[in-house]
Amino acid sequence: MTDAQETAADSSLRTTGGGPPDDDGLAPEGLPIPLLEPRDGIPPVIADEEALAATVAAFAAGTGPVAVDAERASGYRYGQRAYLVQLRREGAGTALVDPVACPDLSGLGEAIGDTEWVLHAATQDLPCLREIGMVPARLFDTELAGRLAGFPRVGLGAMVESVLGYVLEKGHSAVDWSTRPLPEPWLRYAALDVELLVDLRDALEKELDRQGKLEWAREEFDAIASAPPAPPRKDPWRRTSGMHKVRRRRQMAVVRELWTARDRIAQRRDVSPGKVLSDGAIVEAALSLPPNVHALAGLTGFGHRMGRRQLDQWQAAVDRAKALPDAELPQPGQTVSGPPPPRSWADRDPAAAARLSAARAAVSALAEQLNMPQENLITPDTVRRVCWEPPAQVDGDSVAAALAGHGARQWQITQVTPALVEALS
Question: What's the rounded Cα separation, in Å, for the pair 276 and 265?
Fold first, then answer.
């Protein structure tokens, strides 16, 4: 049994039958215990202002950290809005809130604003929570904690099983959460997602403390909580899957026109863009440059199920791209700041390539020694930037300042600086 599991054994958790687990947190014969029912049952969905006000009061009066999760409808609806918000706190129980019926949850966010929020993979949920008025001042990310502690699998189900000895049912993770009313099995799944988050947090906190990494984790959590919203992505059409096949500027213009038309339709219909037209179809049309609707209909993704009106709108987008003057065609690649792709370093700057090779080896060895992924020890982009443009005078202070300038946290700077000084020298 791991140290984290010993920690978890102190928690008074519920098994499928409602009784306490064995002392080691595992089912008899070492098998993990299926967790099939929330300990307090499935709560009703909060979908009106009166019920929301009661929930706000209950969570404001609760004690300890608040487990928070959100369910989106990725692949079904346009954007990444939340369609269900789950919370659990000692003294308040579990709440399932419908943000479609209650789109402003700022009052709930304020009621728990100063409390530590416990999320799993926080950066995935924080943008949609921010949209409905929920912004944490402090948080604990159980996925990131698992990475820093060296767990090989850090999904919520894997973490709950390896740390607490329970199996979460994950069959509804990819369903359409915009469905109304939400089926009871989905609500059960949603409630169970926050059932053990605080218990997992407590066990991971002790494990991180045992490894001497707790302060490192707190720096990471503070950085996530204080990070501003991500700016809109420039030229999002360039991320069309299969874009690497598109070489000519005229073809790129077709991708841009089709992507823009698809996005406009998807937003109006509130459906996932992929349900309107696939990325593969967009790239196929760009490569083929069809002269008319008949030719377009023969391409993969524009089959017989597509009506004439739809084909006409896609052909119009292709025609607009074909009619653009050369000066208005997109350039072959995005203008990016920072160093060029590492594959070109050997030709452009052999010394920089040697620095990068040494730095990568040093970071890899240090990450293995600290038992954590390299990208959590220091981002690969930061390493590349420092190696491409190292300080004029390479020493501990100058390398530390360079790392800080690229957004590295203090614990990362302390750990990585000595290895990078040697590599850059």
Answer: 8
pTM for this structure?
Answer: 0.89
pLDDT value of residue 334: 63
* Residue 72 and residue 177 in contact, taking contact as beta carbons nearer than 8 Å: yes
Higher pLDDT, 172 or 162: 162
Alpha-carbon span 346 to 248, nearest angstrom: 27
Q: Enter the tokens of residue 14.
A: 């519920």
Q: Enter the tokens of residue 265.
A: 């339709």
Burial of 5 from C-beta contacts in 10 A (0-12 / 13-18 / 19+): middle
Residues 6+ apart with CB under 8 A from 132: 82, 85, 99, 103, 104, 105, 106
Are 128 and 53 in contact by the 8 Å Cβ rule? The answer is no
Burial of 47 (0-12, 13-18, 19+ CB in 10 A): middle
DSSP string, 126-149: HHHHHHTT---SEEEEHHHHHHHT
Residue 89: helix, strand or coil by DSSP? strand
DSSP 8-state assignment for residue 112: T
Residue 244, CB-side half-sphere exposure with 13 Å CA sphere: 1
pLDDT tens track for 23-75: 444 444 578 899 999 999 999 999 999 999 999 999 999 999 999 999 999 99
- Closest by Cα among 127, 160, 173, 120 to 144: 120
d(CA 135, CA 103): 14
